[in-house]
Design goal:
Blueprint lengths: L1 E2 L2 H21 L6 E7 L3 H17 L2 E7 L5 H12 L6 E4 L9 H7 L11 H9 L7 H12 L8 E5 L6 H9 L6 E5 L6 H6 L3 E4 L16 E5 L3 E4 L7 E4 L4 H4 L3 E4 L6 H20 L1
Parallel strand pairs: 1-11, 2-3, 2-4, 5-6, 5-7, 7-8, 8-11
Antiparallel strand pairs: 9-10
Amino acid sequence: MILIDGKKTADEIKKEIAIEVKQIISTGKRAPHLAAVLVGHDGGSETYVAFKIKDCEEVGFRSTLIRFDDDVTESELIAKVHELNNDDELDGFIVQLPLPKHISEQKVIEAIDARKDVDGFHPENVGRLVLGLPAFLSATPFGIVELLKRYQIPTSGKNCVIVGRSNIVGRPLSILMSQKAVNATVTVAHSQTKNLNQVCAEADILIAALGSPEFIKANMVKEGAVVIDVGTTRVSAPDTKSGWRLKGDVKFDEVAPKCSYITPVPGGVGPMTRVSLLQNTLLAARSNG
């Protein structure tokens, strides 16, 4: 069993990005600029955005954090999105999800200029992904495909089962995995899939993205499978300083011995999601030229 080290791979990519940023600055151009909009004080979002700011510093990007309280109105938030759309000094930005229930996430996503949508959530970028056109790819699917590539894991003709069909991971990942550059045969499984255990057990590449801690057990994984765990759920852990720990969608200790490759949680897909955001921002900066 080989542990797929997402942190190490992300660090390698960050070094590559930092070299290009130095080259950009050496020609007299400004550094790429990424902004994050954070609404409220969700613990997971706070941690994630703090990591993004640190990542920007490491590669030489300029970063901006814009905060709103939970009671910000939908119209106020969308007004800020329009302001960022028109900021010529800004290459890309994200609105950190989830948002409070009184705000429509879809309205906010659609308000973002697709050319600055470095999360890859805007319908224009999703549509371009479907058609195989240049686009900002959703960060988690982008990071997963990059991990498979850098670990030289064979994907062509392989049976890939994705458990989960969210617009952020499952759906865009299914499209990426089926494209000619990857050439996997893809099944998207979900809560209504019949014989789910059997479907998963037939996968050469099993990707768990359903947000249910330790849902994937050993009996759902075939010998020699590649297992990618996208889950990051905070569960109570009184023995830790924080009072919680991250759990993936895969029961790691039980599943790992059966795998050829497996990602850990934390340290697997998470760092690759963040570095993919940097790659998208660099792409946006190149376009702004």
